[in-house]
């Protein structure tokens, strides 16, 4: 039985957050004294200010640090943001996201060691071993400090998807290239969840992101914190709050198929889902197109799939030619011509890494009208 605590939290007042987290940790019977050193893993996708709702708010990280420090546990804050994994980039992300300030204020080490260790993965993915950021080796537990956001490829990102950020820079890109089917990608996330098995998951939904997440969406105040001893259960609670059905949520759908998730095994504590639920959260749904398989001639099926699949496109007057998308595109489908990005759709695998990481929001997602309006 796992426990999910849902708590209304109006703003990022550090005392308020601390108070909420303290209550939640008591409810899930989290005993920090059992651990020597914990890895705190916020979602630091890219260099964005806290108010842009792309990264875990520093006040949430600070609240947890202040609680754990009282127990004299060693801590380290670490993540591998999108793009190359090097000290310069880490420093830029830590500064802009406000995490560096929090760590300096609380005297908590921030990771600058860009080496990695290999872990063997439990589960069903074809990937049997993975490199992860070095601090994982030195700690006896991981805390997933996630941000509640939509995601162009995964539909939703929270506590489990946050673990993908433990894979160092370039290897994340390589995996996107090797694993193109959404179900297989979910298998990898579930294997990471089973293997890393975070001791604690905290989802920052005070200001969540809706629409074109995980970086180009809009901040949406949900005023909630979700805390759990089970990352998958925490994500399930978040999905219920944003009115995302199990069928439209690839991670939970796959977890159910694999026998990893049962709704009846969750004990909910705190504010009820109904009291915080929103029915109009903008979610980039990915409709399963397999229903057309076998009912149409093969060439028509391929054609329909092609025109119905959302695609990235470059907004030329916003593109600064910075090459970030070129560097992060797994199949090298992007080139820079006349200081503008250009996508080769024959190579594009629709992973949306470019959309996720463009610092100027110059890559948007084009969805077919029929897909948008009729299949919803
Ligand atoms: S699309 Fe974005 S990331 Fe790519 S070159 Fe233009 S500004 Fe840079
Ligand atoms: S162009 Fe964008 S969506 Fe297409 S493969 Fe490259 S990074 Fe992925």
- Averaging pLDDT over every residue, what do you get? 92
CATH-scheme architecture of the largest domain: 3-Layer(aba) Sandwich
Q: Which ligands accompany this protein? A: iron/sulfur cluster
- CATH top level of the largest domain is Alpha Beta
- Rg, alpha carbons: 20 Å
How do the helices and strands follow one another from N- to C-terminus?
EHEHEHHEEHEEHHEEHHEHHEHEEHEH
Helix content: 25-40%
* Count of DSSP-assigned helices: 14
Terminal residue distance: 34 Å
What composes the largest sheet? Answer: 8 strands, mixed
Shape assignment: globular
Number of domains: 2
**CATH fold-level assignment of the largest domain:** Rossmann fold
Give me the count of strands: 14
- Tell me the CATH superfamily of the largest domain: LarA, N-terminal domain
Structural class: alpha/beta
Report the β-strand fraction as a percent range: 15-25%
């Amino acid at each position: 039985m796992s426990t999910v605590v849902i708590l209304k939290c109006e703003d990022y007042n550090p005392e308020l957050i601390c108070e909420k987290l303290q209550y939640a940790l008591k409810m899930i019977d989290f005993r920090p004294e059992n651990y020597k050193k914990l890895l705190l893993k916020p979602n630091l996708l890219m260099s964005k200010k806290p108010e842009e709702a792309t990264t875990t708010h520093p006040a949430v990280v600070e609240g947890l640090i202040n609680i754990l420090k009282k127990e004299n546990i060693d801590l380290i804050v670490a993540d591998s943001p999108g793009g190359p994994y090097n000290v310069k980039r880490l420093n830029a992300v830590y500064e802009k996201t406000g995490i560096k300030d929090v760590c300096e204020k609380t005297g908590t080490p921030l990771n600058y060691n860009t080496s990695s260790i290999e872990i063997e993965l439990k589960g069903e993915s074809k990937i049997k071993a993975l490199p992860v950021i070095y601090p994982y080796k030195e700690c006896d537990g991981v805390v997933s400090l996630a941000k509640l956001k939509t995601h162009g490829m995964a539909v939703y990102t929270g506590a489990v998807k946050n673990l993908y950020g433990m894979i160092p820079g370039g290897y994340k890109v390589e995996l996107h290239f090797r694993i193109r089917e959404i179900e297989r990608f979910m298998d990898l996330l579930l294997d990471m969840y089973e293997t890393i098995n975070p001791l604690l998951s905290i989802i920052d939904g005070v200001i969540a992101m809706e629409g074109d997440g995980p970086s180009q969406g809009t901040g949406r105040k949900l005023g909630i914190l979700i805390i759990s001893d089970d990352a998958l259960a925490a994500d399930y609670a978040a999905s219920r709050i944003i009115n995302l059905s199990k069928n439209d949520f690839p991670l939970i759908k796959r977890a159910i198929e694999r026998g990893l998730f049962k709704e009846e095994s969750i004990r909910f504590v705190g504010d009820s889902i109904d009291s915080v639920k929103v029915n109009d959260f903008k979610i980039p749904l990915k409709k399963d197109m397999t229903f057309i398989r076998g009912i149409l001639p093969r060439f028509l099926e391929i054609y329909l799939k092609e025109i119905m699949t959302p695609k990235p496109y470059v907004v030329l007057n916003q593109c600064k030619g910075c090459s970030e998308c070129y560097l992060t595109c797994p199949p090298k489908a992007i080139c820079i011509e006349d200081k503008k990005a250009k996508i080769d759709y024959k190579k594009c695998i629709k992973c949306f890494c470019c959309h996720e990481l463009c610092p100027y929001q110059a890559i948007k997602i084009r969805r077919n009208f029929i897909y948008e309006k009729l299949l919803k």
